[in-house]
């Protein structure tokens, strides 16, 4: 059975858990990370030299990097409905998977650490204001995309891109109290809430 190493509160672990829900894929999960088993031990570093969660163990195959894990699971376990084989359709999904991992992650880093994690090292008012403005700007870009598709991030159908973007949307909604009214995003959030995997691993009270 697939084994997932990582605490369930981690946004990147929750990506994998939600994908497993969409795939109907059984798994066993072990708590690793802050507050649980440490990831800087030789045993864990042998699995992921970055000392980060999640890591999956699928038989004799070990893999890390959450968005890469999503692609692998869809490819390996009958997930063409989430990660299409046609090059252009797949490229649209990859585009938003990569955007989430780079542009969007970079935008939220300072305000998330300041507001959600209450990090003493992230309390500069100017940097916080700039970070919040950038994060909101990224979400406005996403608003434009959803206005264009009228449905999901990569197009008309739910895909792996919506797993990572949906969790990011949840983080934005739960972290920033001052954010623009974005009706397409609100409608998108309502569509995601129709999916059991999002209710369990996304909109479940965790940031």
Structure notes:
Pfam families: GST_N_2. It is an enzyme of class 2 (transferase). The protein has 207 residues and is an alpha+beta fold. It contains eight helices and four strands. The chain has a four-stranded mixed beta sheet, with helices on one face. The chain is globular and about 45 Å long. The relative contact order is 0.14.
Shape descriptor reads globular
Distance between the termini: 28 Å
Q: Treating each run of at least 4 consecutive H or I residues as one helix, how many helices?
A: 8
Strand order of the largest sheet: 2-1-3-4
Secondary-structure element pattern, one letter each: EHEHEEHHHHHH
Quantity of strands, as a count: 4
Q: Residue-averaged pLDDT, rounded?
A: 98
CA radius of gyration is 17 Å
Helical percentage: 55-70%
Secondary-structure topology with pairs:
Elements: E1 2-5, H1 11-23, E2 27-30, H2 42-45, E3 55-58, E4 61-64, H3 66-76, H4 87-116, H5 125-149, H6 160-175, H7 183-192, H8 196-201
Parallel strand pairs: 1-2
Antiparallel strand pairs: 1-3, 3-4
Helix pairs in contact: 1-3, 1-6, 4-5, 4-6, 5-7
EC number: 2.5.1.18
Protein name: Glutathione S-transferase
Domain GST N-terminal: 1-81
Short note summarizing the structure:
By secondary structure, this protein is of the alpha+beta class. The protein has helices at residues 11-23, 42-45, 66-76, 87-116, 125-149, 160-175, 183-192, 196-201, and strands at residues 2-5, 27-30, 55-58, 61-64. Strand 1, helix 1 (11-23) and strand 2 (27-30) form a beta-alpha-beta unit.
């Amino acid at each position: 059975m697939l084994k997932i190493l990582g605490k369930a509160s981690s946004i990147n672990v929750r990506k994998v858990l939600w994908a497993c829900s969409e795939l109907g894929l059984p798994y066993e999960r072990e708590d690793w990370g802050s507050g649980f088993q440490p990831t800087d031990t030789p045993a864990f570093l042998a699995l992921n030299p970055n000392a980060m969660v999640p890591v999956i163990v699928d038989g004799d195959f070990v893999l890390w990097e959450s968005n890469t894990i999503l692609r692998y699971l869809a490819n390996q376990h009958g997930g063409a409905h989430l990660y299409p084989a046609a090059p252009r359709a797949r490229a649209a999904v990859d585009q938003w998977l990569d955007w989430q991992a780079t542009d969007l992650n970079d935008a939220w880093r300072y305000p998330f650490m300041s507001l959600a994690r209450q990090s003493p090292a992230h309390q500069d008012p100017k940097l916080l204001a700039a970070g919040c403005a950038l994060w909101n700007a990224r979400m406005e870009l996403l608003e434009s995309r959803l206005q264009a598709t009228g449905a999901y991030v990569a197009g008309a159908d739910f895909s792996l891109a919506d797993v990572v973007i949906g969790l990011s949307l949840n983080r934005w909604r739960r972290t920033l109290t001052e954010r623009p009214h974005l009706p397409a995003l609100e409608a998108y959030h309502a569509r995601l809430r129709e999916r059991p995997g999002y209710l369990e691993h996304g909109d479940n009270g965790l940031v």
